[in-house]
Please model this.
Amino acid sequence: MSFAVGERVRVSAREHRGHHRTPGYVKGRVGTVERRHGAFTNPETRAYGESGLPERELYLVRFENGHVVSADIFEHWLEPA
Amino acid sequence: MSNDHDHDHPHEPIGHDGEPPAAARAQALEELLVEKGVITREAVRQGIDWLVSRSPADGARLVARAWVDPEFKQRLLEDARAAAGELGLDAGPSPKVVAVENTADVHHMVVCTLCSCYPRALLGPPPAWYKSLPYRARAVSEPQAVLAEFGVELQPDVELHVLDSTADVRYLVIPRRPEGTEDLDEEELAALVTRDSMVGVAEPAAPALSG
Model:
């Protein structure tokens, strides 16, 4: 799924056993796409000796809660909000 | 390779639930990878050699050039890897480096909450505090307090923007050019650009008073 800069997105709150790069403190939260970084290999499979293909889009997502924190989140953790 | 445990009294390595300490695990992995022909000892040595040969002076050159050359700054913001290449700097093996600019309106601060991602190619190895659990947790939960402990008090109208480098991007902060530096040349400016200012937990050094 592809998102545009400025689009509101929700980070999936699902559990994921094994290596992944979605920090717990943003799971379930709604943020705004701030940058599109392009596509990168998937660390969730690459970590186990696989190719990491197909590549996944990586987004900088902005979360506001008194202060602003942005984190890089892969597309398969995001859904429209 | 090191357990990032750096102080002045000796004791046995602190283990985690019976797991061997990180250094022992790293060594065992290296032995195995060498034995299986995946890597060579020479390649490991070269990798370490390259890493420790990088220093914040490289990043500082980029920042100083950006301060004196607005067009270069624009290119740095658009594609930090290519801009670094213009100065003969190798932005390293991580896929993407993104430079962000501190302004009168926004102050960026970088953390890696999941591990210790850091623009090593441009800043050298990260400081111990950057890898510490308290910094990694508090930089996203109470960044103002962390900044204050580093001695930075932002004006109330400045937005504090924390960047958590959770994946394939490494962030480099272009700090604000200090006032009173209009007469300094690029080399003198680079000397003011500290490591911590490029992580966003400090302002650049103040220029020495001339007189």
